Input
Amino acid sequence: MKPTSLLLLILAVAVLAPPTGAGVVPDKIHPLRPQAGSGGHRIPGVSCLSWRLAVETDNIRNWDVVPSVCENYVGHQYRKDSNAVAWAAYQYAKGLTLKKDGKDVWIFDIDDTSLSNLPYYARPDNAFGAKEYNETTFTEWELEGKAPALPATLGLYKRLLKLGFKIVFISGKSESLRAITIYNMKKVGYYTWEKLVLKQASESGTTAMVYKSTERTKLVQAGYRILGNMGDQWSDLMGTNIGNRTFKAPNPMFYIA
Ligand SMILES: *[C@@H]1O[C@H](CO)[C@@H](O)[C@H](O)[C@H]1NC(C)=O
Ligand SMILES: *[C@@H]1O[C@H](CO)[C@@H](O)[C@H](O)[C@H]1NC(C)=O
Ligand SMILES: [Mg+2]
Output
């Protein structure tokens, strides 16, 4: 994963609570460092709502910092926005008539779609406090296997399984992280899948959009029908064989070309 731009300053930093028990999707965000830090980028005349809309519609690109007017967003609104996307996805999914031949597929991205890396970004010695995303410390964080689930996505995942979807995770995480990724996914409640696709070393120079398009094409060629596709980056949802419908999950932390 190579975010080109990262959040530098968020005043109200939050972390999603880990699942509290089987089938229970927690519904709370815990502020970690409310009111910590200072500064933040400002765009004159732009409110946080305007900024969020412009980012999600891909009009503002390659941004470096979340504007200071959005300081409360991650702590509060992010969670609600995630719920709205999961809700829309479920409304769509439950209206479909599945063939139930094992080929009805829903694709999820992993980082900041299925698993949340907010705790990493919230660490004072990591990206929140530093100038840029740091690949070394991010990999160390991944190797801890401690990423919580994004509750809205986990809830949707469980409902899609009940509807009869096969789940395919396509992630920009490295193949070398397979064991810890599986450990982390299962620990937080993603207990089954049809495929979990990780990026091979030979593909390390490939952009997220090209890599994910290639993997989706392989699925289609194998006879799978990609009915839904959810990711926090536009590069998860653009390119070829994107699926019958895509769902853009919010990401207040970074942007991947
Ligand atoms: C990333 O973090 C490591 C460990 O703290 C540090 O040694 C390295 O200089 C950092 N890299 C960059 C590009 O900042
Ligand atoms: C999904 O898209 C394909 C290709 O456009 C189409 O043939 C198929 O009917 C669509 N499926 C659903 C459930 O809408
Ligand atoms: Mg992602």
